[in-house]
């Protein structure tokens, strides 16, 4: 009782952090985080692979898929219709055609630079007649009838060729989608293996503390209380493993994304470099892995303990 207005000092019957179920001995404090870290490392690499495949597919659609190449033979000859050269007439038609955002003729120096690795010299030095090459950027929203465009260009310059990337682009897009699906399947498999590892560790902990758990359960401890204690311990260890595995994968992920950056070129001019434009979303997605590992640990331990407790006599 309080005496002279002074309250008696509270006495703690159980110290803070007391492990009444002995879970620190039941759960291996090193093995489970190590196994979860290995799963998180594999999941990080798989996730980055999936993001890289998606980035490549987007780059192909927005880059090669939105461009055309027009070759005009005998570009300096007079056009069949109207005034001017064949190349000038084709370029005028392209710039006025619906569905085309921009058209530009490559200069002689650019053509020499493109052909020199194949010919070993400039086309002029070899006496070759090189057609004019015009790069065309398609409008994003407007449809383009390539067959009709080829017929229109052939009127002032017969023999003009229009090369589109659609045939091989569809195959590359299908390949990218297949890679994304395989990476997603690999993520599911890694998550399932992590859940299996945690379930095995939980059952080993239950077996190690079976007698104590039977006594506590017989004295009135509810299934929810025991399962929550195991789940909290599994969540803690899985979170440590998830953070460790993600941090271990981070240097590898940054290196791989920097190597893949020239193939995606997602950065806009004047903003992030291509390497940073690829690495930034990848590292942001990696932040999901530790919470996901902790959630898998908590849910798996909760289900495993409740199923085990139901079988007690």
Give a structural overview.
By secondary structure, this protein is an alpha+beta fold. Helix 2 packs parallel to helix 9, helix 9 (about 225-265) packs antiparallel against helix 10 and helix 9 (about 225-265) packs antiparallel against helix 11 (about 290-310). The protein is about 65% helix and about 5% strand. It has a 4-stranded antiparallel β-sheet with strand order 2-3-1-4, covered by helices on one side. The protein folds into 2 domains: about 25-60 and about 170-310, no CATH class; about 75-160, no CATH class. The chain has 11 helices and 4 strands; from the N terminus they run ααβαβααβαβααααα. The chain has helices at about 25, 30-60, 85-95, 110-120, 125, 145-155, 165-210, 210-220, 225-265, 275-285, 290-310, and strands at about 65-70, 100-105, 130-140, 160-165. The radius of gyration is 33 Å and the shape is rod-shaped.
């Amino acid at each position: 009782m309080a005496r002279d207005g002074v309250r008696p000092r509270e006495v703690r019957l159980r110290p803070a952090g007391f492990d009444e179920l002995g879970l620190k001995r039941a759960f291996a404090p090193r093995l489970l985080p190590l196994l979860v870290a290995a799963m998180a490392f594999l999941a990080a690499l798989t996730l980055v692979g999936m993001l890289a495949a998606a980035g490549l597919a987007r780059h192909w659609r927005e880059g090669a898929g939105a461009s055309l190449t027009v070759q005009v033979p005998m570009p300096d000859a007079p056009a069949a219709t109207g005034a001017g050269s064949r190349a000038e007439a084709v370029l005028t038609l392209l710039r006025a055609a619906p569905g085309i955002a921009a058209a530009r003729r490559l200069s002689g120096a650019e053509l020499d630079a493109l052909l020199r690795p194949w010919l070993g010299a400039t086309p002029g030095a070899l006496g070759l007649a090189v057609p004019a090459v015009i790069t065309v950027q398609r409008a994003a929203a407007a449809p383009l009838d390539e067959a009709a465009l080829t017929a229109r260009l052939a009127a002032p310059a017969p023999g003009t060729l229009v090369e589109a990337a659609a045939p091989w682009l569809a195959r590359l897009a299908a390949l990218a989608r297949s890679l994304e699906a395989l990476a997603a399947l690999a993520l599911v498999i890694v998550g399932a293996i992590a859940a299996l590892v945690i379930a095995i560790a939980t059952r080993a902990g239950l077996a190690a503390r079976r007698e104590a758990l039977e006594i506590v359960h017989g004295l009135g401890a509810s299934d929810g209380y025991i399962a929550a204690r195991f789940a909290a311990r599994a969540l803690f260890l899985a979170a440590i493993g998830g953070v460790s595995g993600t941090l271990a994968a981070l240097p590898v992920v940054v290196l791989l994304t920097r190597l893949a950056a020239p193939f995606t070129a997602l950065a806009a001019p004047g903003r992030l470099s291509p390497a940073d434009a690829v690495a930034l979303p990848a590292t942001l997605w990696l932040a999901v892995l530790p919470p996901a590992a902790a959630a898998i640990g908590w849910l798996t331990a909760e289900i495993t303990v409740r199923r085990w407790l139901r079988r007690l006599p």
